Amino acid sequence: MNAAERSARSTGSFPSSETDRLEIRNQLERILAHPQFRNSKRYPALLKHVVERTLEGRADSLKERTIGIEVFGRKPDYDTNLDHAVRTSAGEVRKRLAQYYVESDREGEIRIELPAGSYVPQFRRLPQRENNWALHIAQEPADGSLETPEAVGAIPPKRRLWRIGILPLAVVTVIVAAIAWTRANWSPQSGFEQFWAPVSASANPITLCIGPAVPEDARQTLADSTAPPTVLGIHNRDRVAFFDAVTLSRLTALLAEKGKRFRTLYSPQISLADLRQGPVILIGAFDNDWTLRLTGPLRYRFQQDLVSDILSIRDEQNPNRNDWKVDGRLPYLELTEDYSIVSRVSDPTTGETVIVVAGITKYGTLSAGEFLTGSRLDEVARYAPPDWRRKNVQVVLGTKVVRGSPGPPRILATYFW
Description:
Number of helices: 14
Strand content: 15-25%
Radius of gyration: 28 Å
Number of domains: 3
Structural class: alpha+beta
Largest sheet: 8 strands, mixed
């Protein structure tokens, strides 16, 4: 009995035999042949390495530095604080594993998981659904008892007629149950579910990023002051916009309802490494530097003319378009229209799914938050190509504003790639 088998049997865990390990290796090959993995070199190598080491009873060797050396060819003295190849790849493997099990019917398969914060995979069997459950329901007596079959020819005529009469009812019951099961299991996902699919599939906590209400120049003045910071000064500096906070509360309520773990971070105090630990939701535009940085390369992005104080959404494929804009010098109550962007992008900088919910002004952000957490998100599916849940998405929204009160969001443009 090898080390892996002794360990498994002592804990009663799975796998506990060579047959179990063979099943896991077969499952690994199925996963590696899936498009989530077969088109990459780095992620299959990492997953196969950690699975094999665990099955060999060498899980204690699965440390970041060791994996970097054995899988990615790093030197023994490489700096793991500067080189995040292992952490980044592990995060992507977790995401792709989750998507593999979500996207298709995987009942009866073995589930391979890589828990957050660990490089040691876990294995468990997915339950096998009873395929002919409707037939069993139709055939079993209501009281759960079993009838002993009578000899052929011994059935009284009245009882034979009763059985002949109930047969069509049993057939109808089976058909109705089968139709109900088919509808429940094959109905297409709503636009809402498809948009949120990458976040739902992630095993890592979601990071919500919100920015300060105080302008950057005012914050910099406070930071550059030679006088020690005061309690009131720090209090005023670290305020957030009320409508951003409302949007944050809507998103956290949605994530909590779906059972997702999340954390909220303050944009001036976080680093790129913080945004590489799972899906990210960026709230606000001009008050959130991370929104401006990560949406800069996209088709629809925010821009500001510092001379005229015109704030706008720029279309990089149609740069002459200039109707999605707000005059920053306009009297507050005269604003009649605001614009916002909702994006879902697999970001190359962070290696994670990044969702943006941001308006030119606070009204646009509030409207975008309403759109992203409500039934109007289903409307995106009308403009979307097939299989868009795996694509990047940008939606430009408009909202009417009447004396400081925003109206419902409406879709102005969409882009999928």
